[in-house]
């Protein structure tokens, strides 16, 4: 099968400017990129000056399957990913049962392959049943296909267990992806311990609940040499700690979410569970530190922490509703509109944080628009403007704080391994085996 994308605009690596290119896809690979390509055997798609990027990579999503299929499935989650321009997603292990066995890993990979919308990279649990006590068989999990280990959803409370996990993971070449949260400080809280919490009499979660674990883990990882990655970083102190570790040459990396880049606790209009996520939206000062950290390279990548819940769950209110917001379908337009078009980031910087950089951090052969690479491609209309509408989401989740936000830069065509997985124009292409 051949697909020829005509008249696209791609980023020039030297100048960061958009230049016209055609792209020929043969089978699962990019065969040629040139100013002008003709191929009578190819299906021609005129993308009419739209921006063509490598497919986005999200290293932190919750696909909920197994165990929480009412919230999301591998099929619905990866379809949402395709709609958002993502061709690769890494799924977190806090399912039921957790991703702590070879059988669960194999089942996830089989279902992702069957769905065919996006590549799914399982992240295995650090501890059995994510109870923070006994390490999983990381060697078997790696052989089955996990690309990192994490107990995301809960912080590993025992320093001894975390140090043992780091030693084992390092011996296997697996990154440790850490949800950083000290339960003695965070338990029972539902929002950041700031002005909003005080105004409404809500129990807060202080920034130190995150940064204390970041500091502990950096110290534990220093001598071991493991690749230590901080999930959904949210606090100024955490950014400072990561920056200092990088300055010492330590292999410490971090991710930040669109919601932490664009919102702070002062933006929450009322006790509305659509604004409840973990870590919580923090102060204006924290948000500014996150943007600066992303710009100067302290924070390496952007990840959505896509966390779908049922409408009935979020309707329980700020104190009782589960933590989490969805993000796969809105990440690029939100960040393009509210960071790139406002001058905080360049288009090249945003794309790098969502493609090449996550691939580099985790040793993945994706994230690059180049000849001989996998045909994982996203076409984006940088001029199309419309509001975020949860009713149109392909995810089962509708839980977003961004409903109604006007955005430009919507993905209109997603190609994964040479197959069209999302087409806003409803072009139908049969999947090839």
UniProtKB/TrEMBL annotation:
<dbReference type="GO" id="GO:0004038">
    <property type="term" value="F:allantoinase activity"/>
</dbReference>
<dbReference type="GO" id="GO:0044205">
    <property type="term" value="P:'de novo' UMP biosynthetic process"/>
</dbReference>
<dbReference type="InterPro" id="IPR002195">
    <property type="entry name" value="Dihydroorotase_CS"/>
</dbReference>
<feature type="binding site">
    <location>
        <position position="309"/>
    </location>
    <ligand>
        <name>substrate</name>
    </ligand>
</feature>
<dbReference type="GO" id="GO:0004151">
    <property type="term" value="F:dihydroorotase activity"/>
</dbReference>
<feature type="domain" description="Dihydroorotase catalytic">
    <location>
        <begin position="49"/>
        <end position="236"/>
    </location>
</feature>
<feature type="binding site">
    <location>
        <position position="278"/>
    </location>
    <ligand>
        <name>substrate</name>
    </ligand>
</feature>
<feature type="binding site">
    <location>
        <position position="60"/>
    </location>
    <ligand>
        <name>Zn(2+) 1</name>
    </ligand>
</feature>
<feature type="binding site">
    <location>
        <position position="152"/>
    </location>
    <ligand>
        <name>Zn(2+) 1</name>
    </ligand>
</feature>
<feature type="binding site">
    <location>
        <begin position="323"/>
        <end position="324"/>
    </location>
    <ligand>
        <name>substrate</name>
    </ligand>
</feature>
<protein>
    <recommendedName>
        <fullName>Dihydroorotase</fullName>
        <ecNumber>3.5.2.3</ecNumber>
    </recommendedName>
</protein>
<feature type="binding site">
    <location>
        <position position="62"/>
    </location>
    <ligand>
        <name>Zn(2+) 1</name>
    </ligand>
</feature>
<comment type="pathway">
    <text>Pyrimidine metabolism; UMP biosynthesis via de novo pathway; (S)-dihydroorotate from bicarbonate: step 3/3.</text>
</comment>
<comment type="function">
    <text>Catalyzes the reversible cyclization of carbamoyl aspartate to dihydroorotate.</text>
</comment>
<dbReference type="InterPro" id="IPR050138">
    <property type="entry name" value="DHOase/Allantoinase_Hydrolase"/>
</dbReference>
<keyword id="KW-0479">Metal-binding</keyword>
<feature type="binding site">
    <location>
        <begin position="62"/>
        <end position="64"/>
    </location>
    <ligand>
        <name>substrate</name>
    </ligand>
</feature>
<dbReference type="InterPro" id="IPR024403">
    <property type="entry name" value="DHOase_cat"/>
</dbReference>
<feature type="binding site">
    <location>
        <position position="305"/>
    </location>
    <ligand>
        <name>Zn(2+) 1</name>
    </ligand>
</feature>
<dbReference type="GO" id="GO:0008270">
    <property type="term" value="F:zinc ion binding"/>
</dbReference>
<keyword id="KW-0378">Hydrolase</keyword>
<feature type="active site">
    <location>
        <position position="305"/>
    </location>
</feature>
<feature type="binding site">
    <location>
        <position position="232"/>
    </location>
    <ligand>
        <name>Zn(2+) 2</name>
    </ligand>
</feature>
<dbReference type="GO" id="GO:0006145">
    <property type="term" value="P:purine nucleobase catabolic process"/>
</dbReference>
<feature type="binding site">
    <location>
        <position position="94"/>
    </location>
    <ligand>
        <name>substrate</name>
    </ligand>
</feature>
<dbReference type="InterPro" id="IPR011059">
    <property type="entry name" value="Metal-dep_hydrolase_composite"/>
</dbReference>
<dbReference type="Pfam" id="PF12890">
    <property type="entry name" value="DHOase"/>
</dbReference>
<keyword id="KW-0862">Zinc</keyword>
<dbReference type="GO" id="GO:0005737">
    <property type="term" value="C:cytoplasm"/>
</dbReference>
<keyword id="KW-0665">Pyrimidine biosynthesis</keyword>
<feature type="binding site">
    <location>
        <position position="152"/>
    </location>
    <ligand>
        <name>Zn(2+) 2</name>
    </ligand>
</feature>
<dbReference type="InterPro" id="IPR032466">
    <property type="entry name" value="Metal_Hydrolase"/>
</dbReference>
<dbReference type="InterPro" id="IPR004722">
    <property type="entry name" value="DHOase"/>
</dbReference>
<comment type="similarity">
    <text>Belongs to the metallo-dependent hydrolases superfamily. DHOase family. Class I DHOase subfamily.</text>
</comment>
<feature type="binding site">
    <location>
        <position position="179"/>
    </location>
    <ligand>
        <name>Zn(2+) 2</name>
    </ligand>
</feature>
């Amino acid at each position: 099968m051949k697909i020829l994308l005509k008249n696209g605009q791609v980023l020039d690596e030297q100048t960061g400017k958009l230049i016209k290119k055609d792209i020929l896809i043969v089978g699962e690979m990019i065969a040629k990129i040139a100013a002008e390509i003709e191929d009578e055997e190819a299906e021609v798609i005129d993308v009419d000056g739209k921006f063509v990027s490598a497919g986005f990579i999200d290293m932190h999503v919750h696909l909920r399957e197994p165990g929480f299929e009412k919230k999301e499935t591998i099929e619905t989650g990866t379809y949402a990913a395709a709609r958002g321009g993502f061709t690769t997603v890494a799924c977190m292990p806090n399912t039921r049962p957790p991703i702590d066995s070879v059988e669960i890993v194999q089942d996830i990979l089989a279902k992702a392959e069957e769905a065919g919308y996006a590549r799914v990279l399982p992240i295995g649990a650090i501890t059995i049943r994510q109870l923070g006590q006994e390490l999983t068989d990381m060697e078997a999990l790696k052989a089955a296909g996990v690309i990192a280990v994490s107990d995301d959803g809960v912080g590993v409370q025992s320093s001894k267990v975390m140090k043992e996990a780091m030693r084992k993971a390092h011996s296997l070449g697996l990154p440790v992806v850490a949800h950083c949260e000290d339960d003695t400080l965070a338990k029972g809280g539902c929002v950041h311990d700031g002005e909003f919490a005080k105004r409404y009499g809500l129990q807060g979660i202080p920034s130190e609940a995150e940064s204390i674990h970041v500091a502990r883990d950096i110290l534990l990882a220093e001598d071991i040499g493991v690749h230590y990655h901080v999930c959904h970083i949210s606090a100024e102190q955490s950014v400072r700690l990561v920056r200092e570790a990088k300055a010492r040459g330590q292999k410490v990396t971090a991710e930040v979410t669109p919601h932490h880049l664009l919102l702070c606790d002062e933006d929450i209009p009322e006790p509305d569970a659509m604004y409840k996520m973990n870590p919580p939206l923090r102060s204006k000062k924290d948000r500014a530190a996150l943007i600066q950290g992303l710009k100067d390279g302290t924070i390496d990548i952007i990840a959505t922490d896509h966390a779908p819940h049922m409408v009935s769950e979020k309707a329980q209110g700020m104190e009782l509703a589960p933590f989490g917001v969805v993000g796969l379908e809105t990440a690029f337009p939100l960040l393009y509109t509210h960071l790139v078009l406002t001058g905080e980031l360049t288009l090249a910087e945003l794309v790098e944080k969502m493609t090449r950089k996550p691939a580099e951090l985790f040793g993945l052969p994706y994230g690059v628009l180049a000849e001989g690479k996998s045909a994982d491609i996203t076409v984006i209309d940088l001029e199309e403007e419309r509001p975020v509408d949860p009713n149109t989401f392909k995810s089962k989740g509708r839980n977003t704080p961004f409903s109604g936000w006007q955005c430009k830069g919507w993905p209109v065509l997603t190609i994964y391994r040479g197959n069209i997985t999302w087409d806003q124009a409803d072009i139908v292409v049969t999947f090839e085996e």
